[in-house]
Here is the input.
Amino acid sequence: MNPLLSASVSAASLENTRQLSRHLSRDVVEHSENYRVLTGDRPTGALHLGHYFGSLAERVRLQDLGVEVVVVIADYQVITDRGSAGDIQNQVYGLALDYLAAGLDPERSSIFTHSAVPALNQLMLPFLSLITEAELHRNPTVKAEAAASGQALSGLLLSYPVHQAADILFCKGNLVPVGKDNLPHVELTRTIARRFNERYGEVFPVPQALLTETPELPGLDGRKMSKSHRNSIPLRLSADETAELIRKTPTDSRRRISYDPQARPGVSALLDTAAVCLGISPQVLAEQIGDAGAGRLKQLATEAVNERFAPFRARRRLLAEDPGTVRQVLARGNAQANDQADCTLAQVRTAMGMDY
Ligand code: TRP
Here is the structure.
């Protein structure tokens, strides 16, 4: 984990969040009607295996439990720490295709882009007034992202967590599945909701973070899986491209396969990857392979990934054949989000006495 982050999200508060998340995970099964999930991603590239097992599968599970799931494609977030949005159209459509192929069902869940929802963005104005500059500067994820970008801290990056609060609160989301990096943003969202309610009267729920329990899947080189490390397996690769990527993963010359992430990062990452696709533990898989060596491990890992994601890839190929489908899904998600945001903004104006 980023050292800036580990320093400020204390072990005790992380443990607290974990316990709460376990409780929430159980409660959501029995009372799915009490929850509205809001979560999302920035459209900066292909979703990979880490995204799938870390968040995508969880969203689909919640949807299938009957929870209303709203997913934001955070296109404005792309320009928080870089000069331009790049090929944003393709990134957004590609991401939406990944969602649909993974099982998000537009009949039950909605997908929208926050740049298309003016009233959501307007919530940022009152929200900014509820937070001090010092609080913004204290956010560990913002600090880490600013440092990693190598650029001066932009006003948008500094205030980005407030924008994220608007993402969550515009639709009165009360459950936010996120990874550790986004916990400070959910904490700030809770602060904003509480302060708004105290100052102007009860409008917003105080949302809760749902920290995903799956252990982080390492990249193929054993480091944290990330697009910038180029060590991930994108979900949308073909079977052959996956085989090629796994074939090139550096391993070692010891024949006996064992799970030891410190001493054998490549071997262990392949074990992790295959094991998570097969639904078994990496240690058990290592035992099964025994003395058969890295060649056999790679063959097994390739088969495991390709079999697990064959249905995903088939669905994605089919969906991509008709670009109209994904456009329609987004248009509908954006229309729904606009209705919601208009309604919430009207409530906010009334609460603030600004309904002229
Ligand atoms: N900040 C998230 C990320 O970088 C993406 C995101 C934007 C998000 N808005 C959100 C996540 C609202 C949860 C809720 O991954």
Observations:
- Confidence is low (pLDDT under 50) at residues 1-7.
